[in-house]
Amino acid sequence: MMKICIKLSLLVMLGLVAACKQSFVDVENPTAIATSAYPTKVSDLEQLLAGAYATQHAAGTFGRAMGPYSTYLWDHTCDLSWQGSPNWIQMAQNNALPSDNFLLQIWPDLWRGVQRCNTLLAGVEKVNQNATEADKAAISLIKGQALFLRAWYYFYLTTFWGESFIVDGKGGDMMGVPIQETVANDLSKTQVSRSTVRQCWDFIINDLKQAETLLKGQKWTAVTDRHKVDEWGVKGFLGKTYVFTEDWNNAKTTLGNVITESGKSLVPFDVYKTMFNGQNEFNSESLFELNLNVDMSFAGATDLSMGSMMGTLISPSYVGANGTPIASAWSNVFPHAKNITRFGFDEGHYFKPGTTSPNISNVDQSYITKSIAARNNKTVDPRLWVACLQPYVDSMVVSGTKRPISHYLDINELDMEAWSFRKYINLNGTELEINRANGSNILWLRLADIYLLYAETLARTGDNAGALEYINRVKRRAYSLPVDKPSAMDYKSLTDATKASDDVLKNDPLKYERWAEFFGEFNWWFDVCRWKIGDKEAAYYQKVRGGPIQWNATDYAQPIPVTEMTSNVNMRQNPGY
C-alpha cells in the first residue's frame, strides 16, 4: 500500500509541476492534473505525504548519497577502494568542488523534499477549508508530519551548506540557505537569497514546535502507519536542534522530557547489534526511522523504490572459491583503517609478515585466536563488531552459503586493516540478490542519541555527575551490562581514559561514546562541525588511499553546487570555493 501511495504521489507531483503557469514551464499538457481538482480530500493529502516521506530515500538522500557520497567521506568514516572517480577522492580529502557529482545529487533532492512539503502544506490549507470536523483532525496530523519533514530537509541543507554552526554564540549571522515557505510555481520565486544561519535554525525550530503541538498524543498503531513520525520523534529532533544551536536550557527541558515521558528504553545489546540489518525495527529505542523494504521491482537510489542502494556501495568483500577476495556488490568504500584502531583493536594484522597475495591461505591463525579472545573478553569495544565485519573472522551469506569476510577488494596495501562495513548491509545475501534495494531501516534518531545529547547538555549546565551517568548508560549497554546500575566498566570522570588512543578521543568519554555508538550512522560529521575539531580529525586520519587529507577552516561548509550558482542570480558561494 505504501509503495502504491508513493507512486501515485510522484505522478501527482509531476502533474502539479506541469500545471504551473506557462511562464515557468512553457509546455501545455492537457493530461496534467489541475491544482483546482487536486488535492480535494484527505486521501489526496495522504498521497502527497507519502511522496514527502519517499524523498528521504531518493538518490541524493538515503537512497545512496547520505554516507558514502557525503558524511562518510568528510568525517573519514570510510576510505576508498574504488579509485576511478577523482571527485570522490577529492571529497575524501576534504577538497569538495562546486562541480562534484555527488553534491549535484544531494542539493536538488533536498530541495525537492522541501518543495513537496510546501506543496502538501498548501494542499492542507485548501482541503481544510471545506473539511468536516473528523477530517480536520486527520488533516492536522498530516500538517504536523509535513512540518517535521520540512524541518528534516532543512536540517541537512543548513548543516551541509550553512557557512557555520553556531559555536560559543557565534556564527548565527553567517550565511545559511534560502528559506522557501511556499511553492515556487514561478521562476522568479526560485531566485532567493541566502538567509542567515540563525534564521535557518529558527525556521527549523518553529516547524518542529508546530509539529509537536499538532502531533501531541498521537500514536501510530497500524502497520501501514508505523513509518510516520509521532510526538516523541518530533520532540527528540527538537531537543537535538537545541543542542546544535547551544540553547542549553531548552535542550535540557526537551531532552529530559523525552527521557522521562516517552516510554522509550535502550534495547539489550543482542537487539542493538542486529537492528541495523533489517531486524528488530521500530523497537523501544527508536524515535524515528526511515522505513525501507527490499524491492525487487525498483532498485535503490530512487524514491520509486522502497529500498536503498547505500548497501551496494559499502558492500563487504568475501573469500571466493580460490581463496582471494570477491566483491559482494560494488564494494566501493570500506572503514578507514584508523577507525579500527580507534575502537581499541590492537591484535596485529591478519596476514603473515611478507604476504604478497590476499589469499586466505596467508592468514595468521594466531591472529584469529587473539581476535576471538578480544571479542569474547571485551578488551576491545564490542561496538567495533556491530559496525564492521572482520576479515577471516566474520562471515556473510552468498547465495545461501556462508563465506568468510576477506581483505577488502582492490586494496593492494596488504598490511592495511581493510575490513568491511556491517551496518546497513544485507547479512542474509548479497546486495545484488536483493536488486540493490536494501530494506534495512535507517534508525535516524534513537534514545542513545538523546542520552548523549542530554549528557552534553547537563555538562554544559553544571551537572557533571548527571552527564557522566547518561554517558555510562550508553557504555554499559555496549558491554551487555544493566543500563541503570553502576558497573566496573563505568567512566569515573568526564576526562577518563577511553578505548581510543588519539589526542581527540582518548580522554573525552562524551566524544568517544558519540563516535563509537553511532559509527556508520551518519552522525559524526555534525559533531566534528559543531565542536570545530575538523583540523584535529584531519591530523589523526592523515590520508586516504587517493592522497593526503588537506583541511581548511572553510571545509565545515560544502560548496554550493555550480548548477545552483548559475540558475539563481541571488545565490552567493561559500568562502573557500
Structure, described:
Residues 1-27 have low confidence and may be disordered. This protein has 2 domains: 2-306 and 558-567, Serine Threonine Protein Phosphatase 5, Tetratricopeptide repeat (Alpha Horseshoe); 310-432, no CATH class. It starts with a helix and ends in a 10-residue tail after the last helix. It is built from 20 helices and 12 strands. The strands form 6 sheets. It has a two-stranded antiparallel sheet. Strands 2-10 form a two-stranded antiparallel ribbon. It has 577 residues and is mainly α. A hairpin with a 2-residue loop joins β11 and β12 (547-548). The chain has helices at 2-18, 42-54, 71-74, 86-92, 103-128, 133-161, 197-214, 231-244, 248-261, 269-272, 310-313, 337-342, 365-377, 384-387, 447-460, 464-478, 509-517, 524-531, 534-541, 562-567; strands at residues 78-80, 286-290, 317-319, 325-327, 333-335, 388-389, 395-398, 401-404, 420-421, 442-446, 543-544, 547-548. It is globular and about 75 Å long.
